[in-house]
Description:
FMN binds at residues 97-99, 126, 148, 177, 280, 302, 335-339, 358-359. The protein is an alpha/beta fold. 36% of the residues lie in helices and 9% in strands.
Amino acid sequence: MAANGTQDGASATKFSIPRHVLSLKDLEAHCLASMDVMVRDYLYDGAEEGRTIRENLEVWDRWLVVPRMMRDTSNVDLTPVVPPLNHPWRLPFGIGPSAMQGLAHPAGEAATAAAAKACGVPFALSTFSNSSMEEVKAVGGESAAFLQMYLVSGGRELNIELLRRAEAAGYKAVVLTVDSPIPGNRPGLIKSNFVMPKNLRLGNFSQDFRGPLDQSASNANPDASTSADTARNGTDSESTNANTNSTSSSNKQILVDPSVNWERDMPWLQEHTTLEVWVKGVLHPLDAEAAIVHGARGIIVSNHGGRQLDGCISALDALPGIVRAVRGRVPVHVDGGVRRGADVFTALALGADFVWIGRPVWWGLWVGGEEGVRWVLETLEKEFRTIDALTRRDSG
């Protein structure tokens, strides 16, 4: 059985949203009633005691809007004022990167990219995706525009190879995640001893690659044999198919380089790619300034969904200070805890140029693959259209 209860990707049951599901909150409750425990624990796990995860949700409720009247809402334009990559996206929000979406649906990131294309919004692909970047680009088209990346330890050859593939596939920007020089303390993930299921693999790497979330391999000898690696990962040659485009990993668990820094690594990255370099994970105005000084083309204000540092500020609370520090020199985006179209409006009102959606995409994937993700995006659009029309700040 596949993660979402279907036999496989080809025979997946047709998506049908229950009549009682009218919002993303309803969809979340519906998913939790059927979601596999392992998937649920992976999706909801956060750092330490989960204070930041809770704050990411509660912070949106502390902001209320003051509507304007008689502003002519007959022809409302929802396109972003500063569109990412200067592309005419339909909406001021898109799908942010999250790893291993094959846990939610057999089609994984390919389904997400197809939904993004259908809805005219951008999709940022995680390096640790189950679908390869080439597969995602083939179905996502121009929506598959961003590739999220970490700078890994043990040399930069792996990063260079990924960058070359992204350029060849037609991606436009690389999103460097800067908030994870070391992994956050996630006790829930450790307790569950997370190992990627047998039917999945990391699409951008060879089948013996061990990702950073593989808890059973965290204390393993990095030079262990292939058979030991595949046993720890729950994979073998019969249950996975090697992708001819997959990057070689020499049977090692690749981790983020803890020595990453602005002065050395931003220039290095820009020297080795023609893609725009964005940074994700900024929460302090001084880091926003450092990112700009060192050539970042865009900033994503984020606390990694509460998975890295427990007790840190929410991205929404950090947003106004960063917007003031940036002064329009580069686009400022934000993610973290977005669950309603009203949340998108709030972020834009506080100065964000664009908003990225995370966990709700998984709910859509779980219930219906591409169609489920489209339902999530369409619901956010409907809610956003309503609040935008009722709070117009101009007469256009």
